[in-house]
Write a structure and sequence with these properties.
The structure holds 2 protein chains of 2 kinds. Chain A is an all-alpha fold. Chain A is built from 11 helices and 2 strands. Chain B is globular, with a radius of gyration of 18 Å. The chains are: A mainly alpha, B alpha/beta.
């Protein structure tokens, strides 16, 4: 009897620790990031991070300004979101309101497949197909631009936006649709004037989650955005994102150097950005009862 | 059966109607004439087809996959199931109130303005006039006039249902279909809806489905009793409730089944 109780207790603790593992890992990662980045505040000084130049390896003057990296990430993210929103939302409307049951069964697996394409493969596709296309289309010197990265990242954001928006649209009560139709609205008018506004909170949250995915994406952007750390809001220039910077430079940096610590600050800023995007979308979804409280 | 009504102007004329959900027949050979500017009540046990029949009159069953209708439904003499019929125009003419109040998650003003805006009214003052007159007609104006810009979801159940009535009236229908409009309301709100029905029949042809026989007795001029998809008896409300011709009607009204 006692032995059985002990067994039950051990199992319970085991399950509990598995359940709380994700919290522990998140906390440890935050702690680790801060620990590695912390000495930077003393020696080169935190003010260095607000400069406009990122030039961490130099014989004259090393510069650790995060501004060009942040603008690079923001530019690519905003472009990708702007491209993904219409496709994602219109796709979701089509799947949930217009498509027949057969079409839906056919389409939904493809959305899952799109979500599952490895980012490196998408990067190949970008280098060989999208970059030359954009170069020719706009008559640029190089196809490796912020826009190229944004197009590919939009491919990644679309499945997220589509599937969560679809859930939101499906949860709009049928009574709203009936009321609108009974007032003489067409199906399309009903969708745009009643269904989509009623699902708006879920749609906004889906966009935020899609953005969170885009901000954190590394491999594709490193392959196709040209990696020039310049401050620019022009989609046709090369930019370098925070993620690409860390991935490209972390392997060659001396551990404990100023450069090393600066890269950790990049990581902290990045993590705070994705964290707040996820938090906002979670809040929005929760507020409107789309996930369990 | 319809000869009782011949001295009235008939708004709706139904001839040999059969209705199917897929392979299941829900209505059997319905023939009926519904008088203009009167209240006609449909009664019968649940599942008897009275709501299905109501929804054939503004083609709301069209949105359910696999439904099929045979026979004729004429409103003002024109066949609403003719392929040339404009469904939008039909639903503008035949408004509907649902069993559960279903205001949009928008402001009170926008709820009522929704229909008129769809049908092309853009002028703000004109919309305001429509909203005010419809709210007065649905006896809700005094309760909400100071908060037209607030969400309709904040109203009580009875107020929401009267808002839905105002919303339906805003597109100037000639016929108003009501599908158990008071079944989810408390007695006081129910009474308000019934008073409203009495008031509205001056201007509108009203067809009301109800599970509440006293309600049918109180508000209607004519009553139709449905049972298992068939129209069993149809006549003046007084006659149906006091001297029904059919045994089944009598059994239902006296509470022996249903």
């Amino acid at each position: 009897m006692n032995k059985q109780r002990l067994k039950a207790k051990i199992i319970k603790y085991f399950l509990q620790s598995c359940g709380s593992l994700s919290i522990i890992i998140v906390l440890l990662i935050f702690l680790f990031l801060f620990k590695e980045a912390f000495p930077f505040i003393g020696s080169p000084g935190i003010g260095e991070l607000f400069h406009n130049i990122w030039n961490p390896v130099s014989f004259q003057k090393e510069e650790f300004g995060l501004v060009p990296l942040i603008t690079g990430s923001v530019l690519v993210t905003i472009l990708a979101t702007v491209i993904a929103i219409p496709f994602g939302i219109i796709g979701a409307v089509y799947i949930s309101e217009v498509a027949s049951a057969k079409e839906r069964e056919f389409l939904k697996p493809f959305i899952e497949i799109l979500a599952g394409i490895p980012s490196v493969v998408l990067g190949f596709f970008g280098l060989i197909v999208i970059a030359p296309f954009i170069k020719d289309l706009f008559g640029l010197n190089t196809g490796l631009t912020a826009l190229t990265g944004a197009v590919l990242l939009a491919f990644m954001a679309i499945p997220t936006i589509m599937s969560i928006s679809e859930d939101a649209i499906k949860s709009v009560p049928a009574a709203y649709k009936e009321a609108s139709l009974a007032l003489g609205a067409s199906k399309l008018e009903t969708i745009w004037k009643v269904v989509v506004p009623a699902a708006l909170s879920g749609i906004v949250a889906s966009v935020m989650l899609g953005m969170g995915r885009v901000v954190g994406e590394t491999m594709t952007v490193m392959m196709v955005t040209g990696n020039a750390p310049v401050i620019s809001m022009n989609p046709f220039t090369s930019v370098r994102t925070m993620t690409a910077t860390i991935a490209a430079e972390m392997g060659e940096v001396t551990i404990g150097s100023d450069h090393y610590m600066a890269l950790f600050w990049v990581g902290i800023v990045l993590m705070l950005m994705t964290f707040s995007l996820n938090l906002i979308s979670y809040r929005v979804l929760k507020k409107y009862g789309m996930i369990d409280k | 059966m319809s000869e009782i009504l011949t001295d009235n102007n008939n708004k709706v004329h139904v001839e040999n109607m059969n209705f199917y959900y897929g392979n299941v027949q829900a209505l059997f050979d319905i023939n009926m004439d519904i008088a203009e500017k009167k209240v006609t009540a449909f009664i019968g046990p649940s599942g008897c087809g009275k709501s299905t029949f109501l929804r054939t009159l503004n083609r709301m069953n069209d949105i359910i996959d696999g439904t099929r209708i045979e026979g004729k439904v004429l409103i003002d003499g024109s066949d609403i199931y003719n392929p040339m019929t404009d469904v939008v125009a039909l639903r503008k003419k035949v408004g509907m109130i649902f069993q559960k109040s279903n205001p949009f998650p928008k402001s009170i003003f926008d709820n009522i303005a929704y229909g008129p805006r769809l049908h092309g009214v853009k002028d703000k003052n004109q919309l305001m006039e429509i909203v005010e007159s419809c709210l007065i007609k649905s006896a809700l104006w005094d309760e909400v006039k100071d908060r037209l810009d607030k969400s309709a979801m904040g109203l009580s159940g009875g107020q929401q249902q009267r808002l839905c009535i105002a919303r339906a009236l805003a597109i100037n229908p000639e016929v108003v279909l009501m599908d158990e409009p008071a079944s989810a309301l408390d007695p006081k709100s129910t009474l308000k809806i019934e008073d409203l029905v009495n008031e509205l029949k001056k201007d509108y042809t009203i067809i009301i489905v109800t599970n509440n026989m006293q309600q049918a007795g109180r508000v209607s001029d004519y009553t139709a009793f449905f049972y298992e998809g068939k129209l069993i008896e149809f006549g003046a409300t007084g006659q149906i409730f006091t001297k029904p011709n059919q045994k089944q009607t009598e059994d239902y009204i006296t509470g022996r089944f249903g």
